[in-house]
């Protein structure tokens, strides 16, 4: 298993290109199942999660070609051979559940393994299932699989989510495009990835209004056609690299970044004493001399502070001049990075969903272990700021969501390398 060696202390300066969004791409790819015609996705990120979704779609008989070194994905579902998503693939990645809505809408049936447990909490899929039932699907849970059918096709209906779910909104949005009649999704997720999916579906001929607001309305159509769509910028990768100069000092320009993708996060950086400005090519982030100011953070669905940046923000606040409180409101058990950061000298007290972080002058390098995707990159950020060497092991988590992290950071002056193991 590979690990990453970071030698801390160097301020960063330079530019970092931000890739297309993993989470957008993972929902855009299953949209191919809605049409016979080809779907081409440009600005795709090159990540192991994208490979897992490729394998899943191919197991259904879809054609998926990776062009231009993985930057472009050419997908086609004209010859689907199966409507069953096997446990062996689904267990590797929870986003596999996103094939359920499209398969059901197009073929009137689908069998999808229930995703297994996950390191960051129970993460059930009940909202996905209830939403599809509201469109007339019949569901049966048997042998660890969801057996879904809709003889005569899905019918438009009202889906009122009790709380916001990104994945469930995506699943039902895709399904509703081919349902008969009108679907109204209330308390829908407003994340940029939802807007990106809706834009792609509209290019494919879907009739969708209200994406980016809590109420989305979909008029079902008989069929969708082919499209070419550019994947939106990855706001989590963007936020992560915005934190790099914030934690080390220096100035980094994040190419392709837009403030609208990270507004709530950028406001917290500003409160911590970091300067963020818009440039012609993206966002520039600078930290002058002096300690970080403590700030309190509460995660929330978009447009709130993203849970996927909580671990990285914690790494920054470990060196603040005072005490910060981080409240995790989306996932239970999402502070597994805290004990690892404490191995590096951080002072953190976790009580349930609240972490109280008392800043220290300087973190110290240590061997640490990545526990999930965002936790792993938070340890790399902490290592950049720490005195001495940090070795982050189990970096396969990192490869799920960050491409060429060592290259991107070392181009800005960081001392970071991958050690093959
Ligand atoms: C997506 C993102 C993930 C991000 C999360 C929240 C992808 C591939 N992943 O995950 O990176 O952290 O949004 O921004 O896009 N829940 C239920 N029942 C359900 C569905 C969800 O109880 O049927 C709960 C979850 O356990 C969680 C909350 O709802 O506590 C929000 O989860 P959700 O928005 O669905 O996250 P994902 O779509 O899985």
Written account of the structure:
This protein is α/β, with parallel strands linked by helices and 421 residues long. Helices cover 30% and strands 26% of the residues. The protein is built from 14 helices and 24 strands. It has helices spanning 22-28, 48-59, 87-90, 100-107, 126-134, 166-176, 192-203, 235-248, 263-271, 310-317, 337-343, 373-385, 396-401, 405-410, and strands at 3-7, 12-17, 39-42, 63-67, 72-76, 84-85, 109-113, 138-142, 145-149, 158-160, 182-186, 207-209, 215-219, 227-230, 250-255, 275-278, 282-287, 297-298, 323-327, 347-351, 354-358, 367-369, 389-393, 415-419. The strands form six sheets. Strands 22-23-1-24 form a four-stranded mixed sheet. The protein has a four-stranded mixed sheet with strand order 2-15-17-16, covered by helices on one side. α6 (166-176) links the parallel β10 (158-160) and β11 (182-186). It is elongated and about 65 Å long. The mean pLDDT is 96.
Summarize the structure.
The chain is 30% helix and 26% strand. It has 421 residues and is an alpha/beta fold. The strands form 6 sheets. A 4-stranded mixed sheet has the order 22-23-1-24. It has a 4-stranded mixed sheet with strand order 2-15-17-16, with helices on one face. Strands 4-5-3-14 form a 4-stranded mixed sheet.
């Amino acid at each position: 298993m590979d690990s990453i060696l970071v030698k801390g202390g160097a301020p960063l300066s330079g530019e970092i290109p931000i890739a297309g969004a993993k989470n957008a791409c993972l929902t855009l790819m299953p949209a191919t199942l809605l049409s016979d015609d080809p779907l081409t996705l440009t600005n795709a990120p090159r990540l192991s999660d994208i490979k897992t979704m490729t394998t899943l779609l191919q197991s259904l008989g879809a054609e998926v070609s990776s062009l231009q070194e993985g930057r472009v994905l050419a997908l086609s579902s004209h010859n689907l051979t199966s409507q069953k998503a096997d446990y062996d693939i689904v267990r590797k990645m929870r986003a596999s559940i996103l094939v359920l809505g499209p398969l059901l809408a197009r073929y009137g049936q689908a069998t999808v393994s229930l995703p297994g447990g996950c390191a960051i909490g129970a993460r059930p899929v009940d909202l996905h299932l209830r939403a599809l039932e509201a469109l007339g699907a019949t569901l049966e849970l048997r042998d660890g699989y969801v057996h879904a059918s809709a003889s005569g096709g899905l019918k438009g209906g009202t889906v009122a989510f009790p709380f916001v779910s990104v994945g469930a909104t995506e699943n039902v949005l895709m399904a509703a495009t081919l349902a008969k009649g009108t679907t109204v999704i209330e308390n829908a997720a407003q994340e940029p990835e939802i807007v990106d999916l809706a834009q792609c579906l509209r290019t494919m001929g879907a009739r969708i209004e209200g994406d980016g607001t809590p109420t989305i309305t979909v008029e079902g159509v008989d069929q969708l056609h082919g499209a070419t769509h550019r994947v939106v910028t990855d706001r989590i990768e963007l936020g992560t690299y915005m934190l790099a100069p914030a934690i080390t000092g220096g100035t980094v320009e994040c190419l392709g970044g837009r403030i609208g993708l990270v507004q709530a996060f950028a406001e917290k950086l500003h409160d911590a004493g970091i300067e963020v400005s818009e440039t012609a090519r993206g966002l520039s982030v600078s930290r002058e001399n002096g300690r970080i100011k403590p700030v309190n953070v509460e995660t929330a669905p978009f447009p709130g502070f993203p849970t996927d940046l909580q671990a990285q923000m914690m790494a920054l606040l470990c060196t603040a001049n005072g005490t910060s409180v981080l409240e995790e409101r989306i996932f239970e058990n999402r502070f597994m990075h805290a004990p690892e950061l404490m191995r590096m000298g951080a002072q953190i007290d976790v009580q349930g969903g609240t972490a109280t972080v008392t800043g220290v002058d300087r973190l110290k390098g240590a061997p640490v272990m990545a526990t999930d995707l965002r936790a792993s990159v938070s340890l790399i950020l902490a290592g950049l700021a720490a005195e001495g060497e940090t070795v982050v092991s189990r970096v396969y988590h990192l490869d799920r969501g960050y491409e060429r992290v060592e290259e991107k950071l070392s181009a800005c002056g960081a001392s970071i390398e991958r050690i093959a193991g």
